Amino acid sequence: MNKRLIIGNWKMNPSTLDEAKRIIRSMRIVATKLEHTQVVACPPYLYISNCISKKSNSVSIGSQTVSIQEGGAHTGEISPAMLKDIGVQYVIVGHSEQRASGDSDEIVSKRIIATVEAGMKAVVCIGENVRDEQGVYLDTLKDQIKRTFAGIQSKYARDIIIVYEPVWAIGAKEAMAPEQVYETSLFVKKVFSDIFSQESAMKVKVLYGGSVNFRNAGDIIRIGKVDGLLVGRESVNIPGLKELLKAVDVVVL
Ligand code: 13P
């Protein structure tokens, strides 16, 4: 069985290094006991080195973004080679919060290329801002996926993880209903297969993100039939995260 992938997006949390170390330690303890679940933590850049362990690989480390530049005079930027060199394996690309601060589909596309060419997996977020009764959001989603993956060579399809993360469900009270997650993730796979191939689409992992917590995670995996979850708030809440990981690991499909 393919392992479920649970990726924690810590965003700009926590506010101290000690707390970051505490979170990653707790994650490792739970993750070593999981049978069907692979865990990834994406701390802020500043904490990444402290979260990487040479002794344990039970939690892989990801970054929340990456520069499209290779190096040189780019103040404040971190290159793909730097991340790869210290042991980062995943990069979140195209998160709506990055898109809101200026990342266009074209830039997202460049970040995907920079990530996969450096030998890391790109965790690519897509999702509509609003949902309407007429289904216009499906066209929006399709256009966004097409533009985001424009120019990506098909040999890199295996290094891409798609996260369907509807913007309206991020930081909300409720996640999307698992039945809707199922329908929309199928749609996302279909559009992906139109761009690459059916074979690539069969292999690509599609995750869901948006207000996932320990209460709804199991059902989203079971009914939504997604390959994993991108978790925000609950990923830095140790008690909730422990329960979430256990709930996901016991789902039988
Ligand atoms: P929340 O889980 O806090 O809604 O955040 C979702 C998210 O943006 C993960 O990338």
Q: Can I get a quick summary?
A:
The protein is α/β, with parallel strands linked by helices and 253 residues long.
Topology:
Layout lengths: L3 E6 L7 H15 L5 E6 L2 H7 L7 E5 L16 H7 L3 E4 L2 H5 L4 H13 L3 E6 L9 H13 L11 E5 L13 H18 L2 H6 L1 E5 L7 H6 L5 E4 L6 H12 L4
Parallel strand pairs: 1-2, 1-8, 2-3, 3-4, 4-5, 5-6, 6-7, 7-8
Helix pairs in contact: 1-10, 6-7
Question: What is the number of helical segments per DSSP (H or I, 4+ residues)?
Answer: 10
Oligomer: single chain
Number of strands: 8
Largest sheet: 8 strands, parallel, barrel
Strand portion, in percent?
15-25%
Instruction: List bound small molecules.
Output: 1,3-dihydroxyacetonephosphate
- Look at the helices and sheets and give the structural class: alpha/beta
What is the annotated CATH architecture?
Alpha-Beta Barrel
Order of helices and strands: EHEHEHEHHEHEHHEHEH
Mean pLDDT: 96
Whole-angstrom Rg: 17 Å
| CATH evolutionary superfamily | Aldolase class I
